[in-house]
């Protein structure tokens, strides 16, 4: 009997499952179909608005290109798009062209959803509005038709998850029902056995106590079984609740992952579209700006869609920053100047930072700054804050009319979505805020310019540095720039004094004796007072000058100077080291077995700051050069023990002599011989007998005095 009951329940369960699967599948197909129809109609209305202004002004090729962009940016999968004239002939198309008919027959004034051999298609009439027609467009024959062929999607995968969850719940419920029926059947059998025991009436009174004990035992067992069944029911209910919670959590997680995947797909699609638009506008941009924008687009895609751990290599800011001047200055428009201000701790510490990230941040900030109209001057501060929690501050301030309003609004939203191809600088800076845990502040006032600050934490690594200059005098008419640079210049000298007026500069030069003078020359051309001042102190004081780009050539006619935009602490330090090197006497090695020539050269160098050494043979030359570094070698070709050509070859193989000037000292030099001298590594030729003027010219050329 129980087996028959199980069979009946199983048939009911299978029938219920099949019915539930059919209902769920039909409902899901209907919902998906209705949603697809709504999306398709919304997309058709959007294309109608987008294509209206292009029907009279655009050729068929341009219209097809525009349809291609619309298909690429669609949120639902579109197989093909086609525009047909009012007579039904195809005008433009994109996508799967073979799936589109060459001509349509339907001439409807309203949106239609048709069923064709290729599947469901949407037909949207396009009407060009005109002042003459006005409110009668509902009765006007359409000027064109838009045919949309969506891609067919499978419905079964979307129904699989609900069917699986429902089947699991129904199976648990069925098993619990079977278990309850089984327990009920056992209890029923016990009661039947008890009721059929009629022979108890014929038993004697002696058997009554045993029957009562059996009844008590049976009641205890029944109560225990009832408690056990209740516990099993509670456990089954808890398990069912746990399974329902798991199913709900998995559904929520699946929804979140699906939403994230959709957002990522939209972002990648927009990024690819921006790159495509950038290539199309290449001719409208300068080469430097285009290459910089292209690089920022690439880095944005790399960091946004393929996150990776940033490098933490030691980076010296004072060495790295001057290397970026060339590429960064090319971004600036003609007539725009830039000045760089470095912090005092930049030279004392290296930062553990990804060089590519720092370079991209500076490029993005500079591209954003030049978008301010009428910008003529930019001041860029790169300051390392060596505190308990060290930070690196990049601060760009510029004049002009300020940034456009839509850029300020875009930055204030703190989102990197919905940006255009030219806004990659803003998008990258917002991405750096997340990657570097940075603070981004952008301020802009119309007519007063703008300010861009990017500050983020860094790790430091100390380096040793010694100041090569005792007393440094700095002149700059721009007092703001002077005050900003004084802190960094303090690390370059033991004592630093500054002035911003010509009269004050003249007074300080007369009263003090600076070891070095650093001048940032004014934008005007040098007058007589400047010429007199420079000529008075140029010979006695080491002067390093920087001038604006517009007047650089005029100042260079008066003294050696460099463009102001090229100034850096590293350049200042290198110049000081070069000055120290130039102050020591250079050494000259004369190799000649003729003592008369040796004595004549000694007389010529008596009053010059040159240390003279001599050698008579090739072996002596090689022995001296192994233990001493000479600044120049005058080498006789014919030596007693070996050829001067062979000596030159061996000298070039010694450490420290790969670039030392070697002059061939010979009585004759034919073209073939000159070629052989050059091949051996000799730099120049000095003919015998020795001419003092020629000898002095060669010494000056190779900076020996």
Report a brief summary of the structure.
With 705 residues, the protein is an alpha/beta fold. It contains 19 helices and 23 strands. Helix 1 packs antiparallel against helix 3 (156-195), helix 7 packs antiparallel against helix 9 (424-436) and helix 16 runs parallel beside helix 17.
Could you characterize the architecture of this molecule?
This protein is of the alpha/beta class and 705 residues long. The chain has four domains: 125 residues, Beta-Lactamase; 176 residues, Heat Shock Protein 90 (2-Layer Sandwich); 114 residues, Rossmann fold, CATH 3.40.50.2300; 118 residues, Rossmann fold (3-Layer(aba) Sandwich), CATH 3.40.50. 49% of the residues lie in helices and 20% in strands. It contains 19 helices and 23 strands. The strands form five sheets. Strands 2-1-5-4-3 form a five-stranded antiparallel beta sheet, with helices on one face. Strands 7-9-10-12-11 form a five-stranded mixed beta sheet, sandwiched between helices. A five-stranded parallel beta sheet has the order 15-14-16-17-18. β19, α15 and β20 form a beta-alpha-beta unit. The longest helix is centred in the middle third of the chain and has 73 residues. The chain is elongated and about 150 Å long.
């Amino acid at each position: 009997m129980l087996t028959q009951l199980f069979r009946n329940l199983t048939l009911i369960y299978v029938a219920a499952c099949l019915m539930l699967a059919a209902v769920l599948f039909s409902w899901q197909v209907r919902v998906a179909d209705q949603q697809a129809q709504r999306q398709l109609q919304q997309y058709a209305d959007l294309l109608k608005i987008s294509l209206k202004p292009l029907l009279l002004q655009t050729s068929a090729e341009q219209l097809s290109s525009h349809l291609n962009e619309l298909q690429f940016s669609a949120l639902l999968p579109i197989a093909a798009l086609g525009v047909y004239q009012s007579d039904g002939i195809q005008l433009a198309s994109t996508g799967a062209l073979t799936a589109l008919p060459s001509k349509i027959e339907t001439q409807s004034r309203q949106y239609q959803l048709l069923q064709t051999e290729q599947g469901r298609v949407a037909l949207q009439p396009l009407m060009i509005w005109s002042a003459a027609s006005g409110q009668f467009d509902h009765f006007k024959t359409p000027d064109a038709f838009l045919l949309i062929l969506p891609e067919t999607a499978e419905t079964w995968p979307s129904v699989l998850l609900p069917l699986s969850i429902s089947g699991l719940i129904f199976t648990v419920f069925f098993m619990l029902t079977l278990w309850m029926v089984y327990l009920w059947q056992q209890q029923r059998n016990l009661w039947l056995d008890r009721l059929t025991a009629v022979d108890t009436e014929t038993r004697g009174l002696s058997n009554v106590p045993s029957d009562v004990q059996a009844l008590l035992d049976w009641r205890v067992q029944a109560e225990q079984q009832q408690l056990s069944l209740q516990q099993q029911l509670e456990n089954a209910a808890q398990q069912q609740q746990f399974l329902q919670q798991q199913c709900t959590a998995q559904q929520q997680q699946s929804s979140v992952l699906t939403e994230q995947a959709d957002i990522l797909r939209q972002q990648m699609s927009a990024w690819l579209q921006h790159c495509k638009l950038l290539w199309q506008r290449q001719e409208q941009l300068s080469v430097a700006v285009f290459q910089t924008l292209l690089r920022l687009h690439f880095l944005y895609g790399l960091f946004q869609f393929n996150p990776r751990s940033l490098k933490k290599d030691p980076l010296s800011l004072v060495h790295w920053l001057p290397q970026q001047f060339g590429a960064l200055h090319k971004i600036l428009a003609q007539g725009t100047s830039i000045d760089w201000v470095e912090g005092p701790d930049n030279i004392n510490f290296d930062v553990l930072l990804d060089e590519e990230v720092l370079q991209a941040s500076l490029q993005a900030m500079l591209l954003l700054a030049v978008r301010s109209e009428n910008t003529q001057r930019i001041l860029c501060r790169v300051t390392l804050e060596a505190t308990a929690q060290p930070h690196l501050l990049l601060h760009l301030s510029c004049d002009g009319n300020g940034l456009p309003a839509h850029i300020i609004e875009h930055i204030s939203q703190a989102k990197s979505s919905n940006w255009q191809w030219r806004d990659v600088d803003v998008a990258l800076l917002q991405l750096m805020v997340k990657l570097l845990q940075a603070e981004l502040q952008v301020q802009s006032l119309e007519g007063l310019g703008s300010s861009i600050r990017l500050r983020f934490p860094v790790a430091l690594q100390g380096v040793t540095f010694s100041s090569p200059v005792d007393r440094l005098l700095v002149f700059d008419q721009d007092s703001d720039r002077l005050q900003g640079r004084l802190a960094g210049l303090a690390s370059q000298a033991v004592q630093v004094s500054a002035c911003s007026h010509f009269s004050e500069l003249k007074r300080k030069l007369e009263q003090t004796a600076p070891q070095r003078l650093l001048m940032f020359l004014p934008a005007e051309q040098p007058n007589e007072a400047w010429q007199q001042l420079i000529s008075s102190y140029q010979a006695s004081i080491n002067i390093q000058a920087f001038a604006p780009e517009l007047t650089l050539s005029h100042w260079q006619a008066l003294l050696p100077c460099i463009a102001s935009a090229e100034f850096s602490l590293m350049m200042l330090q290198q110049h000081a080291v070069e000055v120290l090197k130039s102050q020591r006497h250079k050494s000259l090695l004369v190799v000649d077995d003729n003592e008369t020539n040796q004595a004549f050269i000694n007389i010529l160098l008596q009053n010059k700051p040159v240390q003279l050494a001599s050698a008579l043979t090739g072996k002596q030359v090689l022995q001296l050069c192994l233990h001493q570094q000479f600044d120049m070698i005058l080498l006789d070709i014919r030596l007693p023990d070996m050829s001067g050509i062979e000596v030159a070859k061996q000298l070039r193989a010694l450490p420290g002599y790969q670039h030392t000037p070697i002059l061939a000292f010979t009585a004759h030099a034919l073209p073939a011989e000159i070629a052989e001298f050059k091949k051996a590594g000799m730099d120049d030729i000095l003919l015998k007998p020795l001419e003092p003027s020629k000898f002095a010219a060669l010494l000056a050329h190779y900076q020996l005095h």
